[in-house]
């Protein structure tokens, strides 16, 4: 390969490209969940404003309008950073993962284009009406714009999660040896993949949790300061209700996601559990040494005695309870190499005008081994084991905090509505000892930690693949010197960190300033 | 619908998005003139708030342009973005700065101060159009890249990469080509013209309007000189043709031939130029005329659309390689599969609906022009 002599790449390019994408994704996910979560909360609040106004209750309507405007201000401060970091992510597929862009662009590009056409324009059009249209459009149009802004953001999440789910579970495509890429054969299979449905439901509900935690935390700060009490209490009821519903749904969709992972990414599940030697009736480790009996089997298969393979089983091959055998990684590597060699022979035969039988013979070998094509780029079977410690702890942090949030929202909601009466007879949620409010405020960063941990599990667990079993990271990267990627990594690190610091500073000042106090 | 039709259709859609993007660069153009259009703090805020209500459209069009290119011509996406790394990274970097600058600059708690973010807006206002214009020029001037799909079957190499840049500058080499710079600066001045026309239309302020109608001369003269120079160069230069077998070859005056073969594109180009000139000249000569953005904007879309279609249609390599002619990209050798293009064709039928609600909302917001009173009493940047 004469052209390969011109390669700029070194091993550092791969790791720094991964680091840069991870950095951008992690920062992006600091802003997007609050956008998705607050969109629901401010939509509900503005709906209440619309209804009270329609009833003719001017005082109540003014209160709800000010409340809606307050949350929209916080939404706006956060919104721009989500948009800014999002564009980098989209273009980084091309800039840092050029081989990936060609090898699966035929499938992967479509959701991104649909996202742009259907979701981004909806979001960007109606967000302008939401911010600037209070006195320019009717109340109904404004309310619709607020909901459509949130809907646009949610549809955007749908399509990008379709794309991400496809990387975890590539469906609806076939390899074309003439174009040297995978090509889409079923848009419905890609867009409605069960993995995508679970991922979307789990991710969006987890974003609503962040919206709820943020809303309740901000309200608790006002209660702590004994300011804006009415707005804080009413907003807290909405934030906690949204948060509780979302947290319960996230638990349910999380269970479904775990089953999907168990089915299509068993190595990820084994890494999440640090399970080296699997079997039936597996327990779920709470931490190393303490486990809930049979819980892992149930989580993965909905059966307390279900079979869950461990890392060693997956590396060395194993026989399932139904008698079918999963090949070892070495066998998969061999099959992958056969696919690549047959592909080379196929292209050579075609270029030399060989007879049809010779071409078809190579094509048959390619098809027979295509399932393991990506393994042909694996040098050593240890490469297919994802980082275990990160997966193990990130999963526990996510699940542990998720359970805490269910309890938290339930308590806040009960307190806000004074339920049960006996317990809250002598207590007033607007006048509790200060530490109660501090706990709620402290949960805001924990919400983000839980959410980011979920993404760490999803993405670290897929390593070393960019697309599961199809394309490892080192076959997906762009031809760049590591120095270029290191430079842009640190440029983005400084830029994003500075902008995050500015955003937090502005948010804190805006919260301190409070809503326009016409209702007080 | 044949595969050939779908390839041409998607080149049209991508070209249309590119043309709309250049029109929407009026946001950048006005931002690059914040200080000369709005002399006082209040004036500057009026300009910023005026473009601040439209920046999302430019941004979204850029993202959609990228997404549509990815979906329809993935080999361009992987080759240009992965190869011209620095060119695209600088573009992205300035757009990120712009995205946060509106919301952050005048908020309490902004410890970097409003002037920092105004500087970011100016930076994006100049570099954004310059580099995007330069990127468009590479469609005619070529780029220094190589493509070898068989690298994918070299499993023994460290990384089996298909597309690569043939020098270490990763796109910055484009800025050494004077013709790329000429088109880049032409787009900078065009963006300024459109920015001035937009602000004149959108801001109800006599000072800014009268200043704008003078400043537009300073942008129009260099724009016309640069644009005419590039257009003459383009029509006379050798172009990158592709024959029926997919073989790339140089052809004298290929782009002139394209305009003659596709006479309707020449008509569109001329109509666009006339509309742009109409918008500029009428704004200069008439004190009361504030609608120049519409003929000039529509004219811009027509001119850019015709140029981009000329780059890709009629057997032309739209992304030529100066390193190895046969690596050049055409709409046939770089596009997605027929199935994907057909599926995306149906998705693209939503575009008129999207445009309709954008126009509806835009009109609703712009019914009352922006004035000093509004930025004191309403949500403002």
Silhouette of chain A: globular
> SSE order of chain A, as H and E?
HHHHEEHHHHEEEHEHEEHHHHHEEH
Radius of gyration based on Cα positions of chain B: 21 Å
Sheet having the most strands of chain A = 2 strands, antiparallel
Q: Average pLDDT of chain B, to the nearest integer?
A: 93
**Greatest interface by residues involved:** A-B, 107 and 86 residues
What is the number of helices of chain A?
16
State the low-pLDDT regions of chain B, or none: none
Q: Report, as a whole number of angstroms, the end-to-end distance of chain B.
A: 48 Å
Tally of discrete structural domains of chain B = 1
Key descriptive features of the protein:
heterodimer, A: 520 residues, mainly alpha, two-stranded antiparallel sheet, two-stranded antiparallel ribbon, 16 helices, 10 strands, disordered N terminus, B: 381 residues, 69% helix, globular
Structure in words:
The complex is a heterodimer of chains A (520) and B (381). By secondary structure, chain A is mainly alpha-helical. Chain A has one domain. Chain A contains 16 helices and 10 strands. In chain A, helix 1 runs antiparallel to helix 2. With 381 residues, chain B is mostly helical. Chain B has one domain. In chain B, the strands form 2 sheets. A two-stranded antiparallel ribbon of chain B has the order 1-2. In chain B, a hairpin with a 5-residue loop joins strand 3 and strand 4. In chain B, helix 10 packs antiparallel against helix 12. The longest helix of chain B has 31 residues. Chain B is globular, with a radius of gyration of 21 Å. The termini of chain B are far apart. Chains A and B meet through helix 1, helix 2, helix 3, strand 2 and helix 11 of A and helix 5, helix 6, helix 7, strand 2 and helix 14 of B.
In short:
The complex is a heterodimer of chains A (520) and B (381). Helices cover 71% and strands 5% of the residues of chain A.
Layout of secondary structure:
The complex is a heterodimer of chains A (520) and B (381).
Chain A: H1 11-55, H2 58-95, H3 98-132, H4 139-168, E1 173-176, E2 181-184, H5 187-191, H6 194-224, H7 229-264, H8 266-273, E3 279-280, E4 284-287, E5 290-292, H9 295-301, E6 307-308, H10 311-316, E7 318-319, E8 325-326, H11 329-351, H12 356-369, H13 388-417, H14 421-424, H15 434-460, E9 465-467, E10 471-472, H16 482-513
Antiparallel strand pairs in A: 1-2, 3-6, 4-5, 7-8, 9-10
Helix pairs in contact in A: 1-2, 1-4, 1-6, 1-7, 1-15, 1-16, 2-3, 2-16, 3-4, 4-6, 6-7, 6-15, 7-8, 7-13, 8-13, 11-12, 13-15
Chain B: H1 3-24, H2 26-31, H3 34-37, H4 41-52, H5 55-72, H6 74-83, H7 85-105, H8 114-141, E1 145-147, E2 163-165, H9 178-202, H10 206-236, E3 239-242, E4 248-251, H11 254-261, H12 263-285, H13 293-312, H14 338-348, H15 351-366, H16 372-377
Antiparallel strand pairs in B: 1-2, 3-4
